[in-house]
Specification:
Blueprint lengths: L8 H11 L4 H24 L4 H12 L2 H34 L18 H33 L3 H35 L7 H28 L1
Helix pairs in contact: 1-2, 2-3, 4-5, 4-6, 4-7, 5-6, 6-7
Length: 224
């Protein structure tokens, strides 16, 4: 790769693209904005009489080095990734909290028959608690993103990392405990695997985990 004063516009953009991590759309927007700014500077230098190559070199040098540009851009990508993660976890948690109980309607214990074991009821309460906590964290994440967009205080970045880690952990814990609850239900209730609400619930929950998991991966990459 060209270096120093030999770096041209596309060289610099490729270098930045290779080192930035985060949501693809926001990353593309940042690079597009950078390209427009660089090309405008190139046009201005060329209008002043410089050859094309020299105009690009000057524009790139004036624009800034990766060491100068990357920290701010990566911080912006991390905020964008936290926004996406918060929105997805909020959506998934809302569906699971609101509609989760519908999955068990028609179970062998829902009509007042012999209740499930104490451990099962504890696990069920844990799943509900995890998603309630995820809801609160997601709302907090969205509020934090709004505040961080208006202020560049260092403390906001540290708090954003904590919230992002909490959301990622809640998502993982929710998936593990939810899978455990589903498996235990199948052992306790013979008709569980053929009960339509149970089937629909498991499909919706699985899709939600995958969807939110993609946002968690984006956040982990952006916040590294």
């Amino acid at each position: 790769m060209p270096c120093g004063e030999d770096v041209l516009v596309e060289d610099r953009l490729r270098e930045l693209a290779g080192r930035l991590r985060g949501p693809a759309r926001l990353k593309a927007d940042l690079l597009t904005e950078a390209r427009h700014g660089l090309l405008d500077a190139v046009d201005a230098y060329r209008a002043g009489g410089l050859p094309a190559v020299e105009a690009e070199r000057r524009a790139v040098a004036e624009f800034g080095s990766p060491a100068q540009l990357l920290p701010g851009w990566q911080a912006e990508l991390a905020v964008g990734a936290l926004r996406g993660l918060s929105l997805r976890v909020l959506s998934v948690a809302t569906v699971l909290v609101v509609a989760g109980d519908l999955t068990w309607r028609g179970s062998s214990w829902s009509e007042g028959e012999v209740p499930p074991p104490e451990g099962y009821r504890l696990l069920s309460s844990t799943v509900h608690g995890v998603w309630m906590a995820a809801l609160a964290l997601a709302v907090g994440g969205l509020l934090l993103v709004t505040v961080a967009a208006r202020s560049a205080r260092p403390g906001h970045a540290a708090l954003a990392r904590l919230v992002g880690a909490g959301l990622t952990g809640a998502l993982l814990l929710g998936a593990l405990t939810g899978a455990g609850l589903f498996g235990w239900s199948a052992l306790l209730w013979d008709a569980a695997l053929t009960w339509p609400p149970m089937i629909i619930g498991s499909v919706v929950a699985s899709a939600g985990y995958v969807w939110a998991g993609g946002a968690a991966r984006n956040w982990l990459l952006a916040a590294r």
